Structure formats: C-alpha cells, structure tokens
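PROTOCOL LOG
Step 1. Enter all chains and additional molecules of the complex.
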Amino acid sequence: MSNEHYLIVSYFLFVLVSLCLGVAVYRILRTPLAAIAESATARFGSQLLTRAMAVCMTIAAVAGFLSVSYTQKGCRSYEQVVKDREYLIQMNQEQVARTSDWLVWAVFVWCLVVLFCLLAWRHAEGPHRRN
Amino acid sequence: MDPNGVVLVVVFVVSIFVLFLLDHFLRPGLRGLLDETLGSPPATVFYLRAFVIVLALVILSGTLGTHSDFKNSPHFMEYVWAAAGRLQDVFQNLFIVLLVYVGLITVLMAALRRKS
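Step 2. Run joint prediction.
Step 3. Record the structure below.
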C-alpha cells in the first residue's frame, strides 16, 4: 500500500475510531444519567438530557479528531506529509490522543450537569420531606 | 518490531496496571463517600463510571500523544528513556485529572451533603 493510500484509508478509519470512542463513552454513562434525569426532571427533560449527552460526546470526539493538523497549520507541504509513513502513523496516534483529551473534558462537564440535576432533585424533594 | 511499537506496548501495559491499581485502591472509599453524600444509587454509578472512563482516556491520550525518534539499532537504555518520556506524560495527565476529580467531589460534598 502506498503512503497516499495509507493516508486516505487511515484518515477515514480513524474518524470512525474517534466516533466509536465518543459513542462508547455515551453508552457507558447513558443509563445512570437517564435514571438521575428522570428523578430530577420530567420524562421529556430526561430524554432531552440523554440526547444532549449523545450529541455532546459525538461533537467532542469529532472536534478532538479534527484538531490534529497533518500540515502543521501550513508548515509542511502535502508532499512532505505523504513521503513519511512514520509521520502518518504518529498523526493517527495523535488523533486518538486528542479525541481522548476532548472526551475527558466533556465527561467532566457532564459531571457538573449531573450535580445540577441532583441539586434540582434535592430542591424538589425538600418540601415533601418537611411534610 | 518497530522500536516505537515496542515502547508503545510496554507503556500501555504499565499504564493499564496503574489504572487497575488506582481503581482497586480508590473505588471502595469513593463509593462509600458518594453513597453517603449523594443518596442516589444512579448518581453514585454515574460518578464511579465517569472516574474510570476519565482515567482510561487519560492513559490512552498519554500513551499515544508522545513520540520518540529512534536512530538505527537503538540501545536498551534508549528504549527505557523513550518509555519513561511517555510514562511521564501519562502520570502528568493522571495527576491533573485526579486533581480535577477531587475538586469535583469537594464541590459535590459542599453542595449536597445531607445535614445530620
């Protein structure tokens, strides 16, 4: 396989890998998030939150993937990029690494969202407890 | 095998071992604290899963995010230094993420702790 073929195939393959990482994170966190959101908000609020999480994780994964520049923001020409297979492999690893970084911060943001849901739940639960 | 591949595999195995160690030591205490503070089993599950996911992603990022330039027929210590460089990234990222997580748990406790 020539380097140019490798570049084309690996680029689209690693888009999928990044997307799969985002979807995996979403699927792992979806069930407990839905349960929390259901107790804190109405049914439609719960649906909204789980869908928002799916979108957020997907966007984070794609943003991480796209943040890697093969041409180093214009410092390398296409010919220089294509002639070095080692460099292409490094870029693929870099894409997964940046995707992971973005997903980490997305998970932290969702931890804060859950905190707000729990606060809302406590607030709603408060008057009933006093009765 | 490519020298970078060898280093990658070694660092990955060491990092997975560190992940299991951290999870093994921190999970029981963290679960108890979250159970007591949150009073909601799904929330405890969410924060525990988030903890493991974040550690795993940080390890993945640290392992893949650094590269070493090997010359022809590298010596043993060059492998060691390359692995140490990658591990330094892994531990640095783990340190930052653990600090953020501790900050998050502190906020959780301050905001949600039930009055006895």
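Step 4. Note key features.
Residues 3-112 of chain B form one domain.
The first helix of chain B runs from residue 3 to 38.
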